[in-house]
Design brief:
This protein is α/β, with parallel strands linked by helices. Helices cover 34% and strands 18% of the residues. A 7-stranded mixed beta sheet has the order 3-2-4-5-7-6-12, with helices on both faces. It has a 5-stranded mixed beta sheet with strand order 9-11-10-13-14, with helices on both faces. A two-stranded antiparallel sheet has the order 1-8.
Length: 330
């Protein structure tokens, strides 16, 4: 039996879409250029040919329409998976997400639900204009009724997307664009979903907890490896589901290590790192031996093209924050 080949994250997403549509005839896919052209990042290649135009629908260039139609489909028993080409274009659909998708179950007292998934590339690193590299996950995590999921590897992209599609409530599925083809793993097409609302501990450690998600985990894991050479034993946690947050895993880790650094590429003000820091201060304060530090992007519009890399947290800044926390120099 030949060894299974490694695949990229975008291929894992494609594999999950094929599997979900094969296993459940209620799953439909829609978005701009996702049918004939296979999507701007080729995540939907082959779906149109296999499942036909009734289940794989090219839409007009209209994010409001895409989101609104998805809410209507979900309310009537379908399971739409909509693609927004870039996160910077998602805001036109916010009215439907905030006022309808997130509230449908509550508004109808459980008579209706909204089992839709809204997929979009997330974050910087592909050297494009600023609308193509935004990290505004905090906007969606703030809305009650929306689930926010951000995979960090091909395997987690496959399993979490299957779980998102099967979930009876709306999921914002943010796909780190700079990981689409830069990381490869063996991903068995076994149809097995991963648990939502659960953090993944990627590295065990005793001295310091590093918390991150999405593409920033690459630099976080590299920093942990370098810090190990300095005698700092880091535990690395992939949040994966940003809302609702797996607080038990985070608190347990910080109670063990006593120190924490949160890493994300979104702007710091009112961001997810601030929420996690507040949570740890409220529920694990007496275990903390130093304040929680954040390593983040900046409070500015993300720079154009190659200059965007200066905006992103890097290994050096993560290592320095870890050293500061270990020394109490904050």
């Amino acid at each position: 039996m030949s060894e299974q080949a490694s695949i990229s994250m975008v291929e894992a997403i494609n594999l999950a879409l094929h599997r979900a549509m094969q296993d459940d005839p209620d799953v439909v896919v829609l978005g701009e250029d996702i049918g004939t052209n296979g999507g701007v990042f080729r995540a939907t290649v082959g779906l149109h040919e296999r499942f036909g135009f009734r289940r794989v629908m090219d839409t007009p260039l209209a994010e409001t329409l895409i989101t609104g139609i998805s809410v209507g489909m979900a309310a009537q028993g379908l399971k739409p998976v909509a693609e927004i080409q870039f996160m910077g274009f998602i805001y036109a659909g916010m009215e439907h997400l905030v006022s309808h998708a997130s509230r449908l179950r509550s508004r109808t007292r459980g008579r209706l639900s909204c089992p839709m998934v809204l997929r979009t590339p997330h974050g910087a690193g592909i050297h494009a204009p600023e609308h193509h590299g935004e990290s505004t996950e905090a906007l969606f995590a703030h809305v009650p009724g929306l689930r926010v999921v951000i995979p960090s590897s091909p395997r987690r992209a496959y399993g979490l997307l299957l779980a998102a599609i099967a979930n009876p409530d709306p999921v914002i599925f943010l796909e780190p664009a700079r990981l689409y083809r830069s990381v490869q793993q063996v991903v068995p097409d076994d149809g097995q979903a991963l648990a939502l609302d659960t953090c993944f501990t990627l590295r065990e450690g005793q001295d310091l907890t590093l918390i991150s998600w999405g593409a920033a985990l690459k630099e976080t894991l590299e920093a942990a490896a370098l810090l190990a050479g300095e005698g700092i034993d880091c535990e690395v946690i992939d949040v994966a589901t940003l809302k609702p947050l797996d607080t038990e895993t985070l608190i347990a880790s910080v109670c063990k290590t006593g120190r924490c650094v949160v890493v994300h590429e979104a702007a710091p003000s009112y961001g997810p790192g601030a929420e996690i820091a507040a949570l740890l201060q409220e529920q694990a304060m007496y275990a903390l031996q130093a304040p929680v530090l954040r390593v983040t992007g900046f409070d500015c519009v993300i720079p154009y093209a190659r200059q965007e890399m200066a905006y992103l947290p890097d290994v050096g800044s993560i290592c320095q924050a870890a050293r500061n926390v270990m020394q109490g120099d904050v």
